[in-house]
Every structure is written in structure tokens, then in C-alpha cells.
Design a protein that fits this description.
Blueprint: H1 10-17, E1 26-27, E2 37-44, E3 60-68, E4 83-88, E5 94-101, E6 105-112, E7 118-129, E8 132-133, E9 137-148, E10 151-171, E11 175-192, E12 197-208, E13 217-226, E14 229-245, E15 255-258, E16 265-270, E17 275-279, E18 285-290, E19 295-299, E20 306-312, E21 318-323
Antiparallel strand pairs: 1-8, 2-3, 2-14, 3-4, 4-5, 5-6, 6-7, 9-10, 10-11, 11-12, 12-13, 13-14, 15-16, 16-19, 17-18, 17-20, 20-21
């Protein structure tokens, strides 16, 4: 079974379909397009086992924008990273995490949460090693301090990985990835202030494919630890439904928009000359304009609050954005 993901670059498709035998049990540094990715993950409250997730059912789909650092508002602060990952926060807004990809590892440089708290690592946490093969383990840790809400916070972070097996990953929609590495992961983050100490423990199984910057599927259990008492916050899993890469085969429609939620300005990336319709949830046209360049900043203060849809006229390519005030 071959990958059937729309909008992926031709180079990545060739890599996935014709991966050499040497990659069968090893993940190396990914070759990522400069333009970034837009991911759609299906989220479920069950945890499939093994490499066959073809029967998994998505409770909801969530879009993750994986964009070049220099296109984000915090490019100067995280200048040593390559990409910022935008993830919708459960309480609203967007969390940003920054990563770099070197020959030796995927580096985690910190991020900015939905409330605006900036956590900048003095050095990277080596999140995933390259190369990484079946039977190998990886451990890394980082301790540092930062300020939040007027308090000095001491943070201790640890990550432990173990590459368990390699196989062909089967996802819903007849999507499959050969040479996928199954990795057990444990992440621990503890924050201490003068008034309290709390920690989050994340445990699960991730499935990594060559030239993908994030797992194509993963299970997770989040446990909160406060003063020695632990509480399971939630248990679930997510799997790749679609991905649009910055480099696309000729003739493929290109459209991405971020951030979401947006308040005042929306960055729109597409093909110059394309006509874009903006529609509200009732399907009424809010705005219609032609892209004059491949990357533009749009004023969205006149758009209705809530969900809006951007559509390339004459195509089925649509992106959803949330407008807040």
C-alpha cells in the first residue's frame, strides 16, 4: 500500500515509497521543505496497539501548522530553531513549540503558551536522536529557570525513548507508511516555585516515519503529579489524516493560513494569481481577493468572529481559521 496523502512534495513521496533497505529499522535526519507543513491529525480517546490503526475512528480533527521559525512572531527569540509548531490550546488560543533538526538530533528549544509566557531553553533538549534504530535507547535532560506571572520558575525536563520495532504503519483512509519506527516515550516536566511544585508525566508509543518532523501516530497518557499525589488527566491517541507540504507537485493547489485563532492579522500562503474566497459558517462570502504574491498578510478585523473558511476558487482546497476578538 502506498501513501495517499494529498499535497505532499514529490521528493517526500519518492522517499516514502522507495525507502532503501538501510532505513528499514533506522530513522535519520529528515529532509524537510523550507516552506513547512500543515498537518491534520485525527484525535481519538482509545489507544490502538501495533502498526495497524486502519480501523481507528477520529472523534475530532485538529490542524497543526509546522511553519518556518522566521515566519513567526518570536523568530528573534528562537533564532536557533528551524520550525515553530502551532497547536490549538485546550483553553483557547495557540501554543507554539520550536524545534531544530540537525544530523544528530531533533532539538526542542522551548516555546510560547497561549497566555504569552515565553520559555526559552538555554540549550536544546535533544528530543529525538538521529540516527535511531530498533533496540536503541535515548535519554536527555535539561534544568533551567524562567519567569512566569512575576514568579521565578525552576524547570526540570527529562525524556526517555526506546525504539521497539519497525513495520508498515496502516492508518485510516488507506494511508500507509513503510519502514515506520515504533518508539516508547516517557516525558517528565517538573516546575517549582517558592509556593508550589507540580509535574506532568507523559507516557505512550510514537510511530516515526522517515522525513516526517513529527510522529505520524502516537498514544499518550498525561498524569499530573502534585505534592507526590498523581492524577491521570487524560488518555488518548492521534493519527495523521492529511499533510500539506510546502513543496508540491506541479498543478497541486497550495493554501495555508495562520495563526488560528487570529485576532487582527492572518498570514496567507498560496500561489500568486489564485482567487481566494472567505466564507462564514453559513456559506456566505465574507471577502474575495486574488493573491498578488505567494505570502501575504491580511487584515481580518472585519471578518465575523468564529470559524471562517478560505477556499481556492475552482478547487476543493479549503482551510479553516478561527477569528477571535
Amino acid at each position: 500500500m502506498k501513501p495517499t496523502i494529498s499535497g505532499v512534495s514529490l521528493a517526500l513521496l519518492m522517499a516514502w515509497m522507495e525507502a532503501p533497505a538501510s532505513l528499514a529499522q533506522t530513522i535519520d535526519q529528515p529532509a524537510l521543505p523550507d516552506h513547512g507543513f500543515t498537518f491534520t491529525y485525527g484525535v481519538t480517546n482509545v489507544q490502538p496497539e501495533g502498526f495497524d490503526w486502519s480501523a481507528a475512528f477520529s472523534v475530532q480533527n485538529v490542524n497543526f501548522d509546522f511553519i518556518p521559525t522566521d515566519s513567526t512572531a518570536y523568530a528573534d527569540i528562537f533564532s536557533l530553531s528551524d520550525f515553530g509548531q502551532q497547536v490549538p490550546a485546550q483553553t483557547g488560543g495557540v501554543n507554539l513549540s520550536y524545534y531544530a533538526y540537525t544530523e544528530s538530533s531533533m532539538e526542542f528549544w522551548g516555546g510560547v503558551d497561549a497566555t504569552g509566557v515565553q520559555v526559552v531553553h538555554p540549550e536544546p533538549l535533544h528530543f529525538f536522536p538521529y540516527p535511531f534504530s530498533v533496540g536503541e535507547m535515548h535519554l536527555d535532560s535539561l534544568s533551567f529557570s524562567f519567569s512566569a506571572s512575576g514568579l521565578s520558575v525552576s524547570r526540570d525536563m527529562r525524556i526517555e525513548l526506546e525504539a521497539l520495532a519497525s513495520g508498515t504503519m496502516l492508518l485510516p483512509g488507506e494511508i500507509s507508511f513503510e519502514n515506520t519506527l515504533q518508539v516508547a516515550h516517557t516525558q517528565f516536566v517538573e516546575d517549582s516555585t517558592v509556593v508550589s511544585t507540580g509535574a506532568i508525566l507523559i507516557e505512550g508509543i510514537g510511530y516515526w516515519a522517515q522525513d516526517m518532523p513529527l510522529p505520524i501516530a502516537q498514544t499518550y497518557t498525561y498524569t499530573q503529579i502534585v505534592d507526590g499525589d498523581s492524577t491521570v488527566l487524560f488518555v488518548g491517541a492521534e493519527f495523521l489524516v492529511d499533510v500539506v507540504a510546502g513543496q508540491n507537485p506541479r498543478g497541486t493547489a497550495v493554501l495555508s493560513a495562520f495563526p488560528s485563532p487570529a485576532q487582527h492579522t492572518l498570514t496567507v500562503i498560496g500561489q500568486a494569481g489564485d482567487w481566494i474566497q472567505v466564507l462564514d459558517v453559513q456559506g456566505r462570502i465574507v471577502e474575495r481577493r486574488q493573491l498578488q504574491s505567494a505570502r501575504e498578510s491580511w487584515d481580518v478585523t472585519g471578518w465575523p468572529t468564529g470559524v471562517n473558511f478560505l477556499n481556492i476558487e475552482g478547487s476543493a482546497t479549503t482551510r479553516r481559521v478561527l477569528i477571535t476578538r
